[in-house]
Amino acid sequence: MTVTPTLDGDVLAVLANHDGIFTTGQLHRLLTRHSEEGIRKVLRRLTKQGVVLSDRVGNAFAYRLNRDHLAAEHIIGLAQLQKTLLERIEDRLESWEILPVYAAVFGSAARGGMAEDSDVDLLLIRPDDADDDRWETQVHELAVEVTRWTGNDARPLEFAEAELADRAYDEAVLRDVARDGLTVAGSRAWLTGRLRKRKG
């Protein structure tokens, strides 16, 4: 789900998702994989283009997205791709004939660190009495749609509800989902409760 895999895109994503102002140092603390000098150069260029506004604060400059710029609504839309993806997945899951007990997006798609070759990882917990064929059809259709929406492969990880007690080798994945996953169906409290029972 990478549309602008550049420093410009990362800087604009931060500015678009927040109404406040940021110094170069503050942006660098958020975008640690980029150098502060690189961020400064991008901000100068974007300010010259009018996409970003700069204000002097003491001895430093602070920057914010120019929300009146013609490109602003498109920049904001790109910055909110993760939110849009989650909303679409939630809508699809709500329309399923067999509703999942719990579902979440996890991994890099949840952390906001997706690259061109990243997968969209989905945890899907199905009811124990679900019809296997119908369930698998739903999952396949969702995976195809998510891939079409994002350009990244969708990788569903599926369990029946009763299987959670028996899948000790997936403990790390389930803990990751409980800690960082973004719930798109059901309740995170339900998952954490099941994990506590496994541990006990």
TrEMBL record:
One of its GO terms (molecular function) is nucleotidyltransferase activity. Pfam families: NTP_transf_2. It comes from the Bacteria. Residues 91-141 form the Polymerase nucleotidyl transferase domain. This is Polymerase nucleotidyl transferase domain-containing protein. It comes from Amycolatopsis alba DSM 44262. The lineage of its organism: Bacteria, Bacillati, Actinomycetota, Actinomycetes, Pseudonocardiales.
